[in-house]
TrEMBL record:
UniProt name for this protein: Vesicular inhibitory amino acid transporter
Organism from which the protein derives: Thinocorus orbignyianus
Function: Antiporter that exchanges vesicular protons for cytosolic 4-aminobutanoate or to a lesser extend glycine, thus allowing their secretion from nerve terminals. The transport is equally dependent on the chemical and electrical components of the proton gradient. May also transport beta-alanine. Acidification of GABAergic synaptic vesicles is a prerequisite for 4-aminobutanoate uptake.
Domain Amino acid transporter transmembrane: 111-507
Keywords: Cell projection, Cytoplasmic vesicle, Membrane, Neurotransmitter transport, Synapse, Transmembrane, Transmembrane helix, Transport
Pfam families membership: Aa_trans (PF01490)
Any GO molecular function: L-amino acid transmembrane transporter activity
Location of this chain's protein in the cell: Cytoplasmic vesicle membrane; Presynapse
Membrane-spanning segments: 143-167, 207-226, 262-282, 302-322, 334-356, 376-401, 429-446, 452-474, 486-505
Length: 521
């Protein structure tokens, strides 16, 4: 009797533990989607729903085990659905009577195809930040073009090896998925001595990248409006303040489904704008300054260009969740190949023709070089896109901060910022508003799009895209790797580390100098 009782208690404890882990991994996977779409906001709500369905599928075995044992306690409320306060009844579709199983059998929403997954990746790496690539060619010449190609190849490879870290071989020799997110991979690499250290490092890098992305949106909004209406007595700082006033309601956001619909339209408009810029450049093909593109680099500013290029390719943080939601995960490698090849070609052409058109007069945001008759219309569309894209990285950063600092159970550093009814407390709302104001202050004191983009790319972009994937691949799968894989991983880690440190130092020096100049003014 005692043995039976002990066995049941052990099963119940294991079930609850699995549920808690699945809940947290679902949250981080969801954060991965938000990090991926923080630039483009394409299909955000759709991917969010698909990710929830995927997490529900992961609970099938747990629900069966709960229902299969007599006397087992019912599933905990809130274990499947994403809820801030962790309360609320389970929906009928997720009940034990086959709700989850019916979802998996195809009656629920389908998982995404390889084309849909490719659309998400394309929009993550083909964002409005490509507007800074011609500036990278200005300081790198042909080496900058080579770096665009090299970054595409490396990011494609590291994306594949990151997904390989999600799988392990079981006792029957079958390859099975044992991890669900970038955070799970990081924690597995640091276990058993530091089981949560890796996840915390990834989360910190993700928060930095998300907040810096918000700052860049404010900077680019102020810059574009100032250069669109130079005759108005409104400075770039004032335009940034106006943009932030428009963005302040983001502090009250509870979901992003409505915003994502508008952002989809802005993304489509952005592709049209890119085509218009290229068409204008082609119309001036006779005046292209081929002699200005040389095999030289500006030693002081080229490392900043490295960060700009790397930042434009960041997508690794959401790839594990994306691959888990694909109908056929075997198509993931092919999808990564064609998306990065397309990105490489389009970015290279866009950067080259834009630089050839304006040569040494190329500005940090290339649309500022357009004639005044076209510039205002194009820039207004880009500002609208930036303002509608801002809520996505902001909301993602807020949720990561709230989960880790205020809602992480007994390990939380501060009291829960939500009340028993799930409503945000006043001081929690104040902290959200403070985050919006912080992005404004950074945009005011360091209104340099290229420097901020280079700093972010060198710090978090290189870490998440180059350093960590190669390190995790070596740590988890080194016994099964062929010698050329080991060589590639080590080479990427070393080269990525050198570029990251060099770009970070030069970008930081430029930011400090700019900060001092603005403080004196």
């Amino acid at each position: 009797m005692a043995t039976l009782l002990r066995s049941k208690l052990s099963n119940v404890a294991t079930s609850v533990s699995h549920k808690s882990q699945a809940k947290m991994s679902g949250m981080f996977a969801r954060m991965g989607f938000q990090a991926a779409t923080d630039e483009e906001a394409v299909g955000f709500a759709h991917c969010d729903d698909l990710d929830m369905e995927h997490r529900q599928g992961l609970q099938m075995d747990i629900l069966k085990s709960d229902g299969g044992e007599e006397g087992a306690e019912p599933p905990l409320e809130g274990d499947i659905h994403y809820q801030r306060d962790g309360t609320g009844p389970l929906p009928p579709s997720a009940s034990k009577e086959g709700g989850v199983c019916s979802e998996l059998s195809g009656q629920g929403k389908p998982k995404i195809t390889a084309w849909e997954a490719g659309w998400n990746v394309t929009n993550a790496i083909q964002g409005m930040f490509v507007l800074g690539l011609p500036y990278a060619i200005l300081h790198g010449g042909y080496l900058g073009l080579f770096l665009i190609i090299f970054a595409a190849v490396v990011c494609c490879y590291t994306g594949k090896i990151l997904i390989a870290c999600l799988y392990e071989e079981n006792e029957d020799g079958e390859i099975v998925r044992v991890r669900d997110s970038y955070v799970d991979i990081a924690n597995a690499c640091c276990a058993p001595r530091f089981p949560t250290l890796g996840g915390r490092i990834v989360n910190v890098a993700q928060i930095i990248e998300l907040v810096m992305t918000c700052i860049l949106y404010v900077v680019v909004s102020g810059n574009l409006m100032y250069n669109s209406f130079p005759n108005l007595p409104v400075s770039q700082k004032s335009w940034s303040i106006i943009a932030t006033a428009v963005l302040l309601p983001c502090a009250f956001l509870k979901n992003l489904k409505a915003v994502s619909k508008f952002s989809l339209l802005c993304t489509l408009a952005h592709f049209v704008i890119n085509i218009l810029v290229i068409a204008y450049c082609l119309s001036r093909a006779r005046d292209w300054a081929w002699d200005k593109v040389k095999f030289y680099i500006d030693v002081k500013k080229f490392p900043i260009s490295i960060g700009i290029i790397v930042f434009s390719y960041t997508s690794q943080i959401f790839l594990p969740s994306l691959e888990g939601n694909m109908q056929n995960p075997k198509e993931f490698h092919c999808m990564m190949n064609w998306t990065h090849i397309a990105a490489c070609i389009l970015k290279g052409l866009f950067a080259l023709v834009a630089y050839l058109t304006w040569a040494d007069e190329t500005k940090e945001v290339i649309t500022d070089n357009l004639p005044s008759t076209i510039r205002a219309v194009v820039n207004i569309f880009l500002v609208a896109k930036a303002l509608l894209s801002y809520p996505l990285p902001f909301f993602a950063a807020v949720e990561v901060l709230e989960r880790s600092l205020f809602q992480d159970g007994n390990r939380a550093f501060f009291p829960n910022c939500y009340g028993g009814d799930g409503r945000l407390k006043s001081w929690g709302l104040t902290l959200r508003c403070a985050l919006v104001v912080f992005t404004l202050l950074m945009a005011i004191y360091v209104p340099h799009f290229a420097l901020l983009m280079g700093l972010t790319g060198s710090l978090t972009g290189a870490g998440l895209c180059f350093l960590l994937p190669s390190l995790f691949h070596l740590k988890l799968l080194w016994r099964k790797l062929l010698w050329h894989h080991v060589f590639f991983d080590v080479a990427i880690f070393v080269i990525g580390g050198i570029c990251s440190v060099s770009g970070f130092i030069h970008s930081l020096e430029g930011l400090i100098e700019a900060f001092r100049t603005n403080a004196e003014d």
